[in-house]
Amino acid sequence: MASSTVLRGTSRGAAHPTAYPLLERHVRVYKRAPAAFASGFLEPLFYLLSIGVGVAALVGEVTLDDGRTISYTAFLAPAMLATQAMNGALFDATYGFFFRLKYEKLYDAVLATPLRPVDAAVGEVLWATVRGAAYAAAFVVIMAALGLTSSWWTLLALPAALLIAFGFAAAGLALTTWMRSWQDFEFIQVAIMPMFLFSATFYPLSAYPDWMQTIVTVTPLYQAVDLVRSLTTGAVGPELLVPITYFAVMGALGLRVAGRRVGVLILR
Amino acid sequence: MSTGTQSPTGVRTPAGAPTVWQALARQAPYYATVLRRTWRGSAFSYSVLPALTLASLGLGLGTFVDDGGAGSTGEGTAALGGLSYLAFIAPGMVAVTAVMGAAGESTFPVYAGFTWTKIYYAMRATSLRVRDLVNGATAYVAVRVLIAVVLLSVVVALFGTISSVLGGFALVGAALLVGVAHTTPVIAYAGWAKEDTALGLVFRLGIIPMTLFSGAYFPVDQLPAAVEALAKVLPVWHGVELCRMATTGEVTSAAWVHVGYLVLVTAVGWVLAQRQFARRLGRI
Amino acid sequence: MIEAQALRKAYGDFEAVKGIDVSVERGEAFGFLGPNGAGKSSTMRMVAAVSPLTGGSLRILGLDPESDGPAIRARIGVCPQEDSLDGDLTVRDNLVVYARYFGIGRRDAARKADELLEFVKLTEKAHGMVEDLSGGMKRRLTIARSLVNEPELLLLDEPTTGLDPQARHVVWDQLHRLKQTGVTIVLTTHYMDEAEQLCDRLVVMDGGLIAAEGSPLSLIARYSTREVVELRMGVGENEAAAERVEDLAERVEVLPDRVLLYVADGEKVVEEAMARGLEPRSTLVRRSSLEDVFLRLTGRSLDA
User: Fold this and answer.
1) Which pLDDT score, from 0 to 100, does residue A7 have?
2) Is the pLDDT of residue A10 over 50?
3) Is the model more confident about B259 or about A14?
4) Which residues, numbered 168 to 207 in chain C, qualify as contacts with chain A under a Cβ-Cβ cut-off of 8 Å?
5) Which of B52, B73, B205 sits opposite A194 (nearest CB)?
6) Same domain, C70 and C209
7) Using a CB-CB distance cutoff of 8 angstroms, which residues of chain C are in contact with residue A108?
8) Which residue has the higher pLDDT, A192 or B43?
């Protein structure tokens, strides 16, 4: 080739490849399908504008753990935000990742380059986190605009959503490496839907008997809802370190496992 | 059929076009195979999931809605026409699940038939006509929806929210009707769709919002008047109303309007679906 | 460039590569020839540093694939058997994004992509999607992609399998041009003509082992005769015909659809066969090829 000296000694040797090019790849793909990306913003909004209006009239006000009462809509909104971060992150980390891994064979091509399995995992988690957090960010703006926040702590709901998305993305990615076919994703639904229904999303934990409260408390979506709701209602204290640690550990573990499993699956 | 050709090996191929029923019967083995392979996955969606939804919303959220409930501070039972929240959402949930199931079975499987499995092209190459293919796809979804609504109705009955046995059968019929009303238009859409992302979009921007504003979870008169008017145009709302008449036993003459509307939507969808299938398969 | 000793690869109980010694020099075009399942692709994956060895030793560019995988992969190009192009990206973005995986800067990646599109004659398709390309175009794009990092060593697994004859010649032409620029090429193929066209040196693999090694010409000289006579006799008559002309040839092979006679002078043998009353449906005299070498070494025809 005529200009084959173009790259020698310049960027190729110097740059150390990381997961960043993969993030770039995912962004490039979604730039081509803006509608699919944008529609994710709308789903929780529909929930807020239907349940948050119609059911709110039926319920009236909700009493928080600390005795304060807030409108049902203000109670529901942070739960939708947390769910949003979860769903946004999980979609790409499960279905999207499975498709890229098994059908598009993206990582067969990627691992033929200097990138390592862990870079693949980090790239996926980064992208899924960005996606989940982007939806959450838009939702925070909507909440503020509708007057559904009662504290400046709400601003911290954004990094909180980032952390939640990270935890779910990494865990989803790790689990997906064991999926054999699309049918197996039924298991993810089996996990998600009950969480969505019972994690103090639609009404306070006080509706449950003690034993059930204990079970609900350990599920990740409850931790996420609790974290976000504490911030948007201004009920901030050291106990928030529990959900923060929860998601940090969940994310770190998931990433580690996923990185290893991608290597096992591809580098045979 | 008396005419036809017989090959030297004894295979007899009927001549001429099949009747509507013959055409359905000829597609039945294919769809039966598909059903056998995939029904297990949806059993959870149609039994455990609705039971959980009723428990969470009907019983859990219900304690914050119903008069005298622990957390009730709102309009409560009066706004629900005297029903408990559980009794109110049970029929709504059946209608919504039937719609979601119908739409789900009408998107990817139909789209796949044109793109991945190309089964429609194979079927079209036989003596089956475009209309037969639309009928076959619709009948398949209808069977799946029927299985689903029977399961759902059993769950709802176990929660004690069906007033009579007749009401139970009426619930199955009403839910099947609203399901089919969301089958033919969605089949038409899936036949039109050029990319699989369009299928996800119809759910996120069409089906899910429609069910949220359908009156399944709260009476639509709680919404602003303009939104309420819009909600009443949605076929899902008519289905929810029909299902609620079935479970409560309070049937009014409006039932005929609901039935008529849903039949109309089904028919329009059926015509559109044939048009899209014909276009996609290349000829009428 | 490549130094392998007693190289082995097993998947569970199945041993795909059973201990091979291979050495490839810089600037060479080296081929692995053999039927499906001979162990070619497994060998290639190990050489590409994406598949751990089961046994033996392997050095690529003087490095150990076990510990220096990324460093090796940074300097080689891989064109896998099945096109693993990114279906979500445009033709050009496939190259740009792949270059980015190597850590190549944005601007260089873009320039390299345009240059390579020109090289494989896909500039007009740059902004189309991969799925709209023909099989031959996809393969050319895959080859272009394997060149984004200006590799010193290019690995091609079955580069022209599944392509029509015209598309194959386009690919061969491009590989010839690459070879002239000094790139070391290692390819696998089960096409004899491809091996003859492209390889300076090759090994014949069968059942996970190396059956023979040499240049195409030396292999033909060593394992075959100058010419080959093909007699098509008709179903069930080949065996009987072979017995009647056995003494005319150095060696006779009976295939399901024809009899092969390995001889020095083909025309003469055909005349003699006719004189003995043989009535073949068709006869063909041709030069010996690697196909004949393979038949001799393994007792099997390649496409059987």
Assistant:
1) 39
2) no
3) B259
4) 178, 181
5) B52
6) yes
7) 80, 84
8) A192
DSSP conformational letter for B19: P
As a whole number of angstroms, the distance between CA C259 and CA A153 comes to 87
Rounded CA separation A137/A143 (Å): 10
Residues C120 and C185 in one domain: yes
Distance CA(B70)–CA(A157), nearest Å, equals 30
pLDDT > 90: percent of chain B? 57
Q: Is residue C209 part of a domain?
A: yes
Q: Any idea which of B158-172, C136-150, C159-173 has the lowest mean pLDDT? A: C159-173
What are the Cα distances from residue C154, in Å, to A113, B27, B181, C24, C62?
A: 13, 51, 58, 12, 16
Which chain C residues touch A116 with a CB distance below 8 Å? 69-70
For the stretch C116-119, contacts whose Cβ atoms lie closer than 8 Å and that sit 24 or more positions apart, written own/partner, are C116/C144, C116/C145, C116/C147, C116/C148, C117/C91, C117/C92, C117/C144, C119/A1, C119/C144, C119/C147, C119/C174
Number of H helices, E strands in chain A: 13, 2
> CA–CA separation, B277 vs B130, rounded Å?
7
A vs C, Cβ pairs < 8 A, gives 104
Q: Indicate whether C220 belongs to any domain.
A: no
| Calpha distance B217→B95 (Å, rounded) | 11
Q: The domain that contains C82 carries what CATH number? A: 3.40.50.300
Nearest Cβ partner for C93 among A8, A18, A28: A28
Q: Is B3 on the interface with A (CB under 8 A)?
A: no
- The total number of residues written for chain B in this structure: 284
Residue A179 has pLDDT above 70, yes or no: yes
Of B49, B213, B217, the CB nearest to A55: B217
How many other CB atoms sit within 10 Å of the CB of residue A215? 11
User: Closest approach of chain B CAs to the CA of A60, in angstroms?
Assistant: 4
| Whole-number Å distance between alpha carbons of A77 and A232 | 9
- pLDDT tens sequence across C253-278: 888 888 889 998 888 888 888 888 88
Same domain, C45 and C187: yes
Pairing of strands C55-60, C2-11: antiparallel
Phi, psi of C30 (to 5 degrees): -115, 140
The answer to whether the Cβ–Cβ distance between A11 and C108 falls below 8 Å is yes
Confidence class for position A14, pLDDT limits 50, 70, 90:
very low
Give the pLDDT score at B209: 93
The neighbour count for residue B177, using CB atoms within 10 Å, is: 25
Give the domain extent around C158.
Answer: 2-214
Sign of the Cα torsion B50, B51, B53, B58 reads: positive
Same-domain status, C139 and C229? no
B114 burial level (CB within 10 Å; 0-12, 13-18, 19+): buried
Contact A4 C103 (CB under 8 A): no
Of C103, C119, C178, the CB nearest to A114: C103
What confidence score (pLDDT) does residue B274 get? 95
Q: What pLDDT digit, counting tens, does each position of A226-259 carry?
A: 999 999 998 889 999 999 999 999 999 999 999 9
- CA–CA gap between residue B52 and residue C191 (Å, rounded): 61
Average pLDDT of B241-263? 95
Q: What is the mean pLDDT of chain B?
A: 89
Residue C82 belongs to a domain: yes
- Asked if residue C195 is part of any domain, the answer here is yes
Residues of C in contact with A15 (CB under 8 A): 103-105
pLDDT digits over B189-239, tens only?
999 998 888 888 888 889 999 999 999 999 999 999 999 999 999 999 999
User: From the CA of C96, how many Å to the nearest CA of chain A?
Assistant: 10
Structure tokens at A139: 């939702």
Higher pLDDT: B279 or C246? It is B279
Contact C89 A115 (CB under 8 A): no
A15 to C111: CB separation less than 8 angstroms, yes or no: no
- The domain ranges of chain B are 18-281
**Residue C303's pLDDT is what?**
52
